[in-house]
Fold each of these.
Amino acid sequence: MENLWMILAITYGALKGIRECMKKEALKKSSLMEILFLYMLVGFAFTIPDTKSALSIEPVFILLGFFKAVIVCTGFVLSFIAIRGLPIGFYSIMSLGQMVFTTLLGVIFLKEDFGVYNLIGLTLVVGGLVLVNLKKHGEGSKQIRLFSIAAVLGYTFLNSVSAAMDKVLTKHISPAQLQFWFMFFSVIFYGIIILVKREKVSFKSLGTNIWIPLMGFFLVFGDRLLFMANASQNSKITVMTLLMQCSVIITIILGKVVYREKDFLYRLFCAAVVICGIVVGTL
């Protein structure tokens, strides 16, 4: 199918939206670093069958896999910091700022086309982000909120860099090979942080905090779909990033149903503006 990569990107977005809510639930029972380490460890276990294939690639791609892991893992830390300090619906809309960064990287470094419809779509998304910031959400000091917003923006920028790397790397290695080295180095990255900070990690949490293994599975399955989409010659990261933002609808709905968050209709309106931008941008 010529447009299969679009379906894969949308599916990844849906899984990502569910995973964001899992993060919030997991934090109720476990510490941040314990979640991140075990989360990645479970994910890496799913990639072990690809070990032989992963060891056959050139060392330069292994090194790039290491850099990707550092970038993404740092982003994950920022995302957990942000999601702990912000309402899930507000966080999800703010995270759409990734599309702005990814568009810039796609146009400047990957030389992807950027036409009138793309510009209109991007403008609508930015408009939705501005609207959601015009209304106060939740409680907490201004300093904490600004710190949380800075964290989510840092997370979106690093995710954009990772997306650009995926598009380049999947031209040379398979999605399975890329995922193996990404998960391998991610486990090491978080393991080193835990040792340096001397944080306690209980493997019992894999049984007592069911959200951790579930997140690990969703991460591996979703990322594999995304890597497959990137491997398609027809795919563009500027368009894929638009399609993946369907995650915002899921997080806003779950924010209302699970957490009883307020301003649901307003957030839904902001999300509708963003979704209109997605539709226009993919024309």
Note: The chain has a mean pLDDT of 85.
Amino acid sequence: MLFILNCWKKVIQMSDAIARSDGSFRIAMLHVDLPSTSKGGVAWQVHYLSNAMVRRGHEVTVFGLDDPSAGALYEVRKIPVPEQIYRNRLLRLYLFSLFAARQDYAGYHLIHAHGDNHFFFCRTIPLLRTFNGTSFNEALTSTSLKRALIQLSLYPLEIISVMTSDRAIGISRATNRYLPFVREVIPCGVDQALFYPGKKSERPSILFVGTLQGRKRGDFLVDIFNSRIRPALPQAELWMVCDEEVAGEGIKWYGRVSSQVLAELYRSAWIFCLPSRYEGFGVPYIEAMASGTPAVATANPGAREVLGQRWGLISRDAELGKTLINLLVNGAKREQLIRLGLKRASCFSWDRTAERYERIYAQMIKDKRY
């Protein structure tokens, strides 16, 4: 009897979702973490997209492990998991999806997963998956064997996630390259109310945001600053936003900062440099451009797609020091890149990104089959 009542309750909830006639949707966003505890870029993308959807009149609930982030307009439903899974990053990577799949999504029009949907085999509502990069590319650019093996072990789960989704989207063509049957691209967005141009620092300054070791290669930039840039330009400064402490002449280490402080650093810097080996997209590049700061990268898939040969500078490793020095002393070139970067960043507004997702939501909901 209890089973019959529960089934009837779900039918009523689904009917309510279907019956809404104001054009709005009830969206279940799925991601393991949020900016309230995570420094990861995907967590921020989920936060911004969810807020954008709420502003467009939709109801959004984020299913994950974290509490709401500051400024959240959406609801959050925390998924209970055993303590050993919550504390162990590897177990979360493999098993969080199992607990997420057990949640009650009745009453929602659509599930939008930003990871962890490989156990979503039996569903009654459509599921859209956004891939914010691929573990295969992560493995190829890993700097340790352990990390490479972990990323390779996750790649089959991504393939399963494609197969268990009604529709899958990548954030770039480079992301889709290693994902079979994924052809659509919707790029990441940038909050232009937070990242906008401002006054530059008095001294020549280079900003880095990322990790010191690994694919972000902050240590590589520090070496170039010490060996090439500082001797040529003694007044130059390197601003490091990373967890690992960095010290040296002309180097300012900020650690982990709030989004407001980060935005101010972007505005004030003369140049932003992220010499990453791999970026699925490269959100820091568009944050820099939106802040009126030229972006410099070394060759990686995200930089090629976001910066190209026009919107920023992509340098070979051996020439990065020379590229940065030339840009620091060439005000006209910086101004040109600022103008081009602002134009490019306008293509990645959250209104534009949300509108594209909204059209896909509508089509998927129209085509749904129970």
Note: The chain is about 45% helix and 15% strand.
